[in-house]
Design a protein that fits this description.
By secondary structure, the chain is α+β, with helices and mostly antiparallel strands. The chain has three helices and seven strands. A seven-stranded antiparallel sheet has the order 1-2-3-7-6-5-4.
Length: 209
Amino acid sequence: MTSVRNRIGLLLAASVLLAVSACTEANNGSPTPTPSESGPPTTGSSGTPTVPVPDRPKDLPVNGLEACSLLTEGQRQELTVSRTRDTVNGSEHYNGASECVLEVNKAGTSYSYRLLLATNEDVSEWLTGTRNVEATLVSVVGYPAVRYYLRGSTDEQSSGCSTSVGVASGQEVVASHREGTDALFTRDEMCAMSQRVAELAVTTLQGLK
């Protein structure tokens, strides 16, 4: 009887040791990252648009294009542009994207437009409610677009207004109006002006495709 009890005791001890060993090996292995450890969310994973986004008439990809090429000489005259500069965006989000700065200087006033070709996100991102903007779904020459400005700012504090047009899956044409040193326009006027630049650019883009 004593021999049987000893054997049972040995077997139980061995089982405990195996269990401890297994736990130690699991803890010393490569950990499975939790969602918070796996890095920032990828494009399109920040949420669902708060309103349905209409389909595009057709895709108008902007890969390889320069932003300034989307505004013709006649269109620049309509906007009374006095100087145009090709640039590359240096922000963290749009880093490397083609950008065009259009400066307007007339009768002692100055302001500017910026046109940017984004190939890293869809226009629906502006409608998820996760960004610090007031966003409104609009249409630009039949394409889904969003007009937006900084949330909580007043006309006097406004840093401008932008219109982003979804021209292809994961691609946008973004037109922005930026004030100069003086507050020349209301926010509604700036939003309308940015939307007009977006309309002109997408119209030119349609002609290229």
